[in-house]
Amino acid sequence: MITIDGNEAAARVAYRASEVIAIYPITPSSGMGELSDAWAAQGMKNLWGTTPRVVEMQSEGGAAGALHGSVQIGALTTTFTASQGLLLMIPNMFKIAGELTPAVFHVSARSIAAHALSIFGDHSDVMATRSTGWALLASGSVQEVTDMAAIAHAATLESRIPFIHFFDGFRTSHEVSKIEALTDDQLRQLINNQSVLDHRARGLSPDHPVLRGSAQNPDVFFQAREACNSFYATCPQTVQQVMDRFAEITGRSYHLFDYVGDPKAERVIVMMGSGAEAAHETVNHLVAQGEKIGLLKVRLYRPLDGEALIKALPKSAVKVAVLDRTKEPGALGEPLYQDVVTAMSEHFDAGRNGFAKRPMVVGGRYGLSSKEFSPAMVKGIYDELTKDQPKNHFTVGIVDDVTHTSIDYDTDFSTEPKDVVRAVFYGLGSDGTVGANKNSIKIIGEETDNFAQGYFVYDSKKAGSVTTSHLRFGPRPIQSSYLISRANFAAVHHEQFLKKYDILDIVEPGATLLLNIGAEPDEVWDRLPKEVQQSIIDKKLKLYAIDAYAVGRKIGLGGRINTLMQSCFFAISGVLPRDEAITHIKTAIMKSYGGKGDKVVKMNFLAVDSALENLHEIPVPDRVSSSVERPAVVSDRAPTFVKSLTAKIIANEGDRLPVSAMPVDGTFPTATAKWEKRSIANEIPIWDADVCIQCGKCAMVCPHASIRMKAYSEECLAGAPAQFKSAAGKGKEYKDLKFTIQVAPQDCTGCGICVDICPAKNKEQPKFKAINMKPLEEHLEPERDSFDFFLDIPEFDRTALKIDSVKGSQFLEPLFEYSGACAGCGETPYVKLMSQLFGDRSVIANATGCSSIYGGNLPTTPWTTNRDGRGPAWSNSLFEDNAEFGLGFRVAIDKQKEFAAELLQHLSGQIGGDLVEAILSADQSNEAGIIAQRERVAKVKVALDSDESVAAKNLLSVIDTLVKRSVWIVGGDGWAYDIGFGGLDHVLASGANVNVLVLDTEVYSNTGGQCSKATPRGAVAKFAAAGKPSGKKDLGLMAMSYGNVYVAKVAMGANDNQCVKAFIEAESYDGPSLIIAYSHCIAHGINMTTAMNNQQAAVKSGYWPLFRYDPRRVAESQRPLQLDSPAARMPLGEFTRLENRFAVLERTDADRATSLRREQQQQIAEQRAFYEEIAGVSKPKPEAPAEPSTDNKETASAN
Amino acid sequence: MDLSTTYLGLELKNPLVAGASPLSRSLDTCKELEDAGASAIVMYSLFQEQIENEAVVHDHYMDYGTDSFAEALSYMPHHVGFPRGPEEYIEHLAKVKQSVDIPVIGSLNGTSVGGWVEHARMMQEAGANAIELNIYLIAADAETSGRDIENRHIEILEAVKKAVTIPVSLKLGPYFSALAHFAEQLEDAGADGLVLFNRFYQPDIDLEELEIVSDLRFSAPHEMRLPLRWIAILDAHLDASLAATTGVYTSFDVLKMMMAGADATMLCATLLRNGIHSIQFILEGMREWMEDHEYHSVRQLQGSMNQVTCPNPAAFERGNYMRELNTFRPFV
């Protein structure tokens, strides 16, 4: 038995059954590709004793194309995908199936983006492939994933029908479970080797050439399309034969349709996927109570054997509910429902009755985007079926108060067995709770006879994120494919959660509660909020506490309290005898950390022992004594929308929101992040006015817009809180003004990057700067009041600022604030800068990725508005089409502007010729010009206010486009270099006035750091586990080759002034502009606090040259390219040693690291020489600096 | 001309040992050192604390940001290997040992007992002819007395001596209040030799940035006088081998050190600055001088100018300094 998640279960089979694996990252399937790549890098063999070739492609479309090519040659080929990725594969899927070519896709089924993107699970992606001719085989649990994966690989070869093997994204792909593994021998027995040889024999070969993929005409296409029918007709039978063989080999038996429940059931549910496991558990529970119910699990959904489906239903069935985990708006019903209805109809039409009475069939939707599907809901469906006229096309799990599709259910109903330990842990992302829980599951799963299950729920924020772990341990295999709603153990690893969420809601009476709380044992009780005390008393909970942060600090673990809390869990949960548990934890520590050196092991051993010493049972008084109340989720001053909807989501109560609360088309207001006061920092920057030189660098680099500056007249200080700090303005523009740097204490993530960049030092004690990190607890209240006051100080007149400087730009109000990006994010400072400079007139097309997630993931958005209500309008279409999407904005705006100009002239009589002329000839090249144009447009609006003519109304609907609009196309390198490159190239070539901002983190950051074509040579990344052998694509050079594209390469941490200039030049250029912005990233394995130093090193080593290519310069007889950074001034190794992505290779394969670094060093020198050629720099060619030294005292002396 | 000497019980063809430096990181340069005439190679140091810290740092960054966000539960590939720790060093040492015929001395650097014992044993198993312990300690803790520091050295030495049978030398810093006494204690604790002196990073202040900057500069020729004095003093009292390691650039420097009582001289800065072939020049220079002055072997001149055998023993002590003071006249 092994304890793994669904993705690993699929990958273990797919890898061994394949020769070629084409991969591309997409959540939640990425894990399968990552494992395959890592195994291949280690040389792990497949069933035939050879290491599969793993190839990363530029998109899922590319992966499908490569797979198609590979199977055409006759290789055993697989890929992994989900959601939009699967959609991109559809064109090839038709081809592959049409050519009757064996292949398997493993799909962790995920919602397709419609009104919104969602990374979570449902069947809408798989259902979109129904017409491709692929077989669709469903798994509902991690065990089934292993089994069906194997069956799919065997069946595709025997049937010649390509297979999608799918399982529910997250619920199954990410559930950790104890399962029976399949051995190589078992797989070899299952996969018919003759079918492998036959597949190879059909492959394209010049030694026996054939032609496939002809073009056919009306005379024969139709007949040829029908020629495959017999293969589809026999496929279900072939699959059943493989399933039977599988049962002989493993003892685990499957059928095309598996019925469970009362053989004489009257009410039956038909469904597939993980929901069927919850339903199975419920059926067992209710049948034991005498209910006549049953469940039909669909395994092979395509080709659908309708007769076998009807045959599998009990003939006693009177009412059948068919559940679909997808939605097809406008259809008569969802796909499985329609199929069952059709099968039933065909059955009866053919006169094959057998039923006492023709069963009534109703359809229902459940579980979209991983919405919970619990036994209570299952029972609700069976209850609904008791009605004479059960609701058809119902929904379950939501409240639909608009079209009233939802059915009611008893939320108190539960099937959780008493002998199952149900433990819920609330942790901070950074404290290692999830990792420790995965470890605990392995301990219990692999060291005891118990079965174990773990499922983890994550936050929508990347900084200060909350994780919730749901762990079950019990004597039988666990089918509970739903979250724990009745915990008999709960652990709260961060005290603040008690004040933010109703955590004890899911804790059952008599349960054990473990708290990590910064208090002495006798002070713990009084620290708890009133509501928490009441729940503890009412539910008679056993209360334990540890000050894990204090213990962690003492033993050198810092905030990583995972081992401490894990030890406490084992000590008090009773899941294992205490001593046995401790031994197992220590063994697990040796396994996990053994290779990491004695020090790491010893530290964790010490954590185990210290945990037990510092864990205390807290006596529970019989009455509430606390005066601490849970604060309101959002301020009273928040807008109604925020209070009624956003606040519920923030408080983890989003599940309770009814349909009527939701926007019908996915449109949300901006300016909402400011209401979500998260207070996640431990320390915040505090300003020292005396030391400050007022350079603005801190505000510039702040990834969260949490440190701001204003210059203002002295009168504005009237009514300032006593502690509000102010200094005399510095510099000639500000000398008569007051100046303040102010932190937003509740919005700061505490990353410290502002302090690190601050160049001003205290003269008496240079360890202090003009801003210094201080404990939030001490400064929260005064700084909060100061910040509120600061926000009310008027913004500086935009027209009077020198905005092409760092300082000038930082007086501009950020219209992107408090994002949920990682603390210290390297992307958001650029996004924020763009919002400061152009936000009040920008429309943003945002590619899917980190920036679309921190920009648009509910509950709130950082995009905001100024006092006039203006601000960026933002939208995300897809990952692959963002450049085209943004071009659409531009074309539409230009068309509307043109139309507005035409109407303006048409209506010049009413408006006034001078005003029309002034508008049409306006100079909007600077802030003053834009503001003047807004005023002119406002005058027109007044003039036409009462004009009822169609022309006037049309003009008013488009007139705002006459004020300059700035179109920004924003995305990461995965989009710009890989999946969206074709579109980006086209848009750059179009000559359209769009601004492209590439936030280049050099990996697919949002999906966990997979290699892109922007990844540097020698960096280790997912999908490049052995270190990327090829160099980074020079996207800037490619864009320059058009000649009419403005191109800039920037790195804020290396040259902030050049960065500001590039943004302004790019935006002012009346044509396509491309800014490639070096964005340090958590995926680089760096200290995020000092990450701007990494940017400096990247530039200084020549790895990241700064330049601006401005086509306008040609008209001035200047070379368009200006190099803004000098040739390399430090060896590349001095930069790469700062980052774990490079250092990993140095540590694990030093020879390869050195060789790749030398190649890269050479490339830097060559690239520089080439750039200098273009820039017309005439000076001796730089030589590559000396090889970097390695960490050693003697080495230092060598340099 | 017989240039041979005995250092740590090892018979060396001449006193020119390649001291611990990055040159020993490559098999090619090790071979070059041998071909140029080096009589032994001290490997670059295996840094005890560095290995531990690398493991901790590696662990930190492999886990950094993991399990926080559903789409990015990790940022590094699965099963990326851990830092190789001492194994890599040991394997390299074994390869060096196989590729050269001259003795190879392993070097261990650290400040506490830690994993030294195990690493020393591994070095011995890999074929090291001796081990040099580089105890790299700045006595900055006001709670730690001079005696504590000395005891820590002895503790480390004894632990390593127990673990191995090959000779063990100590590379010392110069900052001991009673070096002669301490050296005797080390000898009593089993030290087969002393290497004088370790040079520490010396901090500097960047006036513009208000930062402490620190880099190790090459030793300058005049710096050889400190080890020269102490070798002359200690040679008179100790049986243990002595090696000189600071500021040895020329054949004259080597000759002086040998006369003061060194059994070997460690070449480092000169090899890095002037190239490996400078060993040949030094050897030629030594031969030339010895021929001119009618010495027939290095052993003949070895220790001839130590504190006991030199004509003016007091010159190695305080009087020397006093006279300098007395004769010093400020510039006007």
The beta-strand count of chain B equals 12
CATH superfamily of chain B: Aldolase class I
* The CATH C-level class name of chain B: Alpha Beta
Q: What is the global morphology of chain A?
A: globular
How many strand units of chain A? 37
In short:
The complex is a heterodimer of chains A (about 1200) and B (about 325). Chain A has 44 helices and 37 strands. With about 1200 residues, chain A is α/β, with parallel strands linked by helices.
Would you mind describing this structure in some detail?
The complex is a heterodimer of chains A (1199) and B (332). Chain A has six domains: 2-206 and 229-249, Rossmann fold (3-Layer(aba) Sandwich), CATH 3.40.50.970; 256-396, Rossmann fold (3-Layer(aba) Sandwich); 421-618, Pyruvate-ferredoxin oxidoreductase, PFOR, domain III (Pyruvate-ferredoxin Oxidoreductase, domain 3), CATH 3.40.920; 670-800, Alpha-Beta Plaits; 813-895 and 964-1088 and 1098-1190, Thiamin diphosphate (ThDP)-binding fold, Pyr/PP domains (Rossmann fold, 3-Layer(aba) Sandwich); 896-962, no CATH class. Chain A contains 44 helices and 37 strands. In chain A, helix 3 runs parallel beside helix 4 and helix 30 (882-906) packs antiparallel against helix 34. Chain A is globular and about 90 Å long. Mean pLDDT of chain A is 95; it is low at 1188-1199. Chain B has a single domain, classed as Alpha-Beta Barrel (TIM Barrel), CATH 3.20.20.70. In chain B, the strands form three sheets. An eight-stranded parallel beta barrel of chain B has the order 3-4-5-6-7-8-11-12, surrounded by seven helices. In chain B, strand 1 (5-7) and strand 2 form a beta hairpin. In chain B, helix 4 (116-125) packs parallel to helix 5 (146-163), helix 7 runs parallel beside helix 8 (251-260) and helix 8 crosses helix 10 (278-292). The N and C termini of chain B lie far apart (51 Å). The chains are: A alpha/beta (1199), B alpha/beta (332). The interface between A and B is large, with 73 and 55 residues.
